[in-house]
Amino acid sequence: MTVTRVGTLAPASGRFTVSAKFSLTGILGDAKCGGEFSPDLKWAGFD
């Protein structure tokens, strides 16, 4: 899910987080990333 400021000139608007829960252990993990992927995802219609 992206936020409304993705794809704008707002600072840090091109960053996103992916979170997951491991089914075997129940441990939560996440990864943060930036770049052009987040605005491209927003412009493709995936909110």
| Number of helical regions | 1
Helix content: 10-25%
Low-confidence stretches: none
The outline comes out as elongated
Give the amount of beta strand, in percent: 25-35%
Number of domains: 1
- What is the residue-averaged pLDDT? 76
Question: N-to-C SSE series?
Answer: EEH
Structural class call reads alpha+beta
> Tell me about the biggest sheet?
2 strands, antiparallel
Task: Calculate Rg over CA atoms.
Answer: 13 Å
* Beta strands, count: 2
From the N-terminal CA to the C-terminal CA, the straight-line distance is 5 Å
Spatial order of the strands forming the largest sheet: 1-2
Structural account:
With 47 residues, the protein is α+β, with helices and mostly antiparallel strands. The chain has one domain. The protein is 15% helix and 30% strand. The protein contains one helix and two strands. It has one helix at 37-43; strands at 15-21, 28-34. The chain has a two-stranded antiparallel ribbon with strand order 1-2. A hairpin with a 6-residue loop joins strand 1 and strand 2. The longest helix is centred in the last third of the chain and has 7 residues, at 37-43. The mean pLDDT is 76.
In short:
By secondary structure, the protein is α+β, with helices and mostly antiparallel strands.
What structural keywords apply?
two-stranded antiparallel sheet; single chain; elongated; alpha+beta
